[in-house]
């Protein structure tokens, strides 16, 4: 789950509501949804920050294990950032 989190602007509440709604709806279908890995961006407009945080998740320096997300959900404050996010997700072949 990717969202922007700054003192003056945070999309955490929206991201958390999306996760809780998805989890609750999935229960009714008998599907278990695990707690997501939360990625906080300081600047939603910074594509390189997004790339860096995704790489940190995929290649954990603690254990060196490679992880590829099954799906990546991004909460965008600005619709104009959608093409940049989609480009990054596609470069890593992540469904989003």
What are the SSEs and their pairings?
Blueprint: E1 2-4, H1 12-28, E2 39-41, H2 47-58, E3 74-75, H3 82-91
Parallel strand pairs: 1-2, 1-3
Descriptive account of the structure:
The chain is globular. It is 41% helix and 8% strand. The mean pLDDT is 90. It has one domain (2-91). It contains 3 helices and 3 strands; from the N terminus they run E-H-E-H-E-H. Strands 2-1-3 form a 3-stranded parallel beta sheet, sandwiched between helices. It is mainly alpha-helical. Helix 1 (12-28) links the parallel strand 1 (2-4) and strand 2 (39-41).
In short:
The protein contains three helices and three strands.
Keywords:
96 residues
- The helix/strand class is mainly alpha
N-to-C series of helices and strands: EHEHEH
Number of helices: 3
Neighbour order of strands in the largest sheet: 2-1-3
| Average residue pLDDT | 90
Portion of residues within helices: 40-55%
Uncertain runs with pLDDT below 50, 5 residues or more? none
* Computed Rg: 14 Å
Structure summary, number of beta strands: 3
Q: What characterizes the major β-sheet?
A: 3 strands, parallel
Q: How far is it from the N-terminal to the C-terminal residue, by CA?
A: 10 Å
Q: What is the count of structural domains?
A: 1
Measured by DSSP, the beta-strand proportion falls in: 5-15%
Shape: globular
């Amino acid at each position: 789950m990717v969202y922007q989190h700054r003192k003056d602007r945070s999309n955490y509440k929206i991201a958390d509501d999306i996760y809780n709604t998805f989890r609750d709806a999935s229960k009714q279908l008998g599907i278990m949804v695990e707690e997501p890995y939360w990625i906080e961006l300081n600047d939603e407009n910074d594509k390189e920050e997004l790339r860096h945080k995704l790489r940190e998740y995929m290649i954990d320096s603690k254990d060196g294990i490679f992880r590829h997300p099954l799906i990546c959900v991004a909460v965008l404050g600005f619709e104009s950032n959608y093409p940049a996010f989609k480009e990054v997700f596609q470069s890593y072949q992540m469904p989003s």
